[in-house]
Amino acid sequence: MRAFEAFGRWQTECLASSVEFSATGPENALLHIIRMNDRPKTIHDLANMTNRVDVPNIQYSLRKLKQAGLIESSGSGRSGVTYAVSDLGRKVTDRFADVRSELLVAAVSHVSGLDKGLQGSTRTLELMTGIYEQAARTAATHRRKPGAE
Predict the structure, then answer these.
(1) How confident is the model at residue 66 (pLDDT cuts 50, 70, 90)?
(2) pTM value?
């Protein structure tokens, strides 16, 4: 939990150094995922890539990013809307990458064996994610009826 919160603070502060916009860590992540591979994403893509099911919260974040001028939407209908970074969003994510390289990458480059350790940690986290997802599906089959004891 501490690492997650620290990462969220890092994302918030790094983005704030790039644009006058107050965003949460997950909103910042959405911005960068939308930019990823420079191709538009649907809300389904974004939910899938972030392993989130809270579509209304994702929609709220997308509205904030759009109002800030960082993303644009096109298309219509439930599944026809796609999101892409705007010119401002591209500049901001480029600046974010520069600040990240300057501060974070430089700081961790001196940690011996970090790459190897992170690779192992990544594999473990991916395994645990799969285990939690399966356990959540199984737990959902054990739900009690409302009011039942």
Answers:
(1) very high
(2) 0.79
Residue corresponding to tokens 């892409």: 84
Amino acid at 147: G
Q: Which ranges in the chain belong to alpha helices (H)?
A: 2-16, 25-35, 43-50, 55-67, 87-100, 106-108, 114-140
Contact assessment for residue 81 and residue 74, using Cβ atoms and an 8 Å cutoff: yes
Q: Which residues pair with 85 in a beta bridge?
A: 71
How far is it, in rounded angstroms, from Cα 4 to Cα 133?
19
29 within 8 A of 52, measured Cβ to Cβ = no
For the chain, give every domain's residue range.
2-110, 111-149
d(CA 61, CA 73): 13
The CATH number of the structural domain formed by 2-110 is 1.10.10.10
Cβ atoms of 32 and 96 closer than 8 Å: yes
Neighbours of 17 (CB within 10 A): 14
Per-residue confidence band for 23, with pLDDT thresholds at 50, 70 and 90: confident
